[in-house]
């Protein structure tokens, strides 16, 4: 696991020495060039399609129930959409259950302008522990990552994979620095190493290091391991 001071959060991630996750060292000295290719890419895509179809087959009623909860707790629209960057840096429309107020961007800017501590937290982590934009029903959705379920539509469409780097926004692209080529080498994921690596304690720079580690060490076995750990993180740990 990364130490909190392992990376200077004010700069793009620097790739020196080694980084690790779950106690295992991961080499990050150079781009090893191991994203899925050829047959491996087709297998990974097939698993993505099967996984998304199985989700809607078995959890369709849950999806509808959550949509109703969002509608009664926060009104219309039920889904939140935003442009994110996918494989090759191509933009795509990203889906979530709406967990925030409608004028979220304005609320955030007003909050950050009046709270220097919150501004520092946002600049480091690109998120806030006590986010004034989040609706009451949104806190429940986020606690168990249920707001992410609409991204199974993105998986079916081919915008995303079940496992990969979390999709980033255009304004976050520069924060990746030299790690951008790694991010752009694969489809972003519904879950990834960041999701199962105490994400609330990691800066954005450390998140980028995890994306490097994922791409350089990719295998189907690693994907299945991350999926299993994600289930545990959501059900057991509530993260």
Structure notes:
This protein has 239 residues and is an alpha+beta fold. It contains eight helices and six strands; from the N terminus they run ββαββααααβαβαα. It has helices at 38-74, 104-114, 116-125, 136-143, 151-157, 180-183, 204-216, 220-235, and strands spanning 18-21, 24-27, 79-85, 91-97, 161-163, 189-191. The longest helix is centred in the N-terminal third of the chain and has 37 residues, at 38-74. The model is unreliable at 1-33 (pLDDT under 50).
Outline type: globular
Query: What integer is the average pLDDT?
Result: 81
Largest sheet: 2 strands, antiparallel
Which structural class best describes the helix and strand composition? alpha+beta
What is the helix content? 40-55%
Distance between the termini: 17 Å
**Rg, alpha carbons:** 18 Å
Q: Helical element count?
A: 8
Residue windows where pLDDT falls under 50 for at least 5 positions: 1-33
How is the topology of this model organized?
Layout lengths: L17 E4 L2 E4 L10 H37 L4 E7 L5 E7 L6 H11 L1 H10 L10 H8 L7 H7 L3 E3 L16 H4 L5 E3 L12 H13 L3 H16 L4
Parallel strand pairs: 5-6
Antiparallel strand pairs: 1-2, 3-4
